[in-house]
Amino acid sequence: MLKIGIIVGSTRDGRVSTQVADWVLSFTEGRKDAEFEVIDIKDYNFEEFNNLPPGMLNKQYEAENVTDWSQKIDGLDGFIFVTPEYNKSISPSLKNAIDHLGPEWSNKAAGSVSYGSTLGVGATMALRQILSNLNIAVVSPFGALSLFADFENMSEFKPGEYHNESIENTIDQVVLWAKAMKTIR
């Protein structure tokens, strides 16, 4: 059975990404082609590595949180990243979490669901470039949510049903590509 992680891409207080991730997970109920789980990068506490002195990055796997993160990502076949848009890119915490690993990402599939004042499109484009550099097959469809139209007071997630098709397509494509990519790992 394929295993797909829905990765929460923000660690800020008051974040709405957990609401979006749970909503994406709701689209996977009843599927028989993969198992899905929400994975919160906040649970892995990467902030302690933000200012490592030179040479310490090579020792990062000695830390329990990084070892746990490595094992979690290594055990997955694909990913759906839920990311806010920060200055036309992904959050620094998501970039940090991605950068802590290397081969664990390779030859897997990913999609994205982004949100922001401009639908998070800049975050999705930045994420695609980062992921492709790690040999991840990034699927074309993606979710794009507006902080103004899909959130009440920019804090309570209330998406319109018009998003359902793009989310279902993203999930379908991640599963198909994850299955294909598994044959080359």
SSE layout:
Layout: E1 2-8, H1 17-26, E2 34-40, H2 64-74, E3 78-84, H3 92-99, E4 108-116, H4 121-133, E5 136-138, E6 143-146, E7 151-152, E8 156-157, H5 164-182
Parallel strand pairs: 1-2, 1-3, 3-4, 4-5, 4-6
Antiparallel strand pairs: 7-8
Q: Can you give a write-up of this model?
A:
With 185 residues, the chain is an alpha/beta fold. The protein has helices at residues 17-26, 64-74, 92-99, 121-133, 164-182; strands at 2-8, 34-40, 78-84, 108-116, 136-138, 143-146, 151-152, 156-157. The longest helix is centred in the C-terminal third of the chain and has 19 residues, at 164-182. It is globular. Mean pLDDT is 92; it is low at 51-56.
Q: From the coordinates shown, what is the CATH architecture?
A: 3-Layer(aba) Sandwich
* CATH C-level class: Alpha Beta
Low-confidence regions: 51-56
SSE run:
EHEHEHEHEEEEH
CATH level 3 topology: Rossmann fold
Helix fraction bin: 25-40%
What's a quick, concise take on this entry?
This protein has 185 residues and is an alpha/beta fold.
Keywords:
6-stranded parallel beta sheet; two-stranded antiparallel sheet; 33% helix; alpha/beta; 5 helices; Rossmann fold; globular
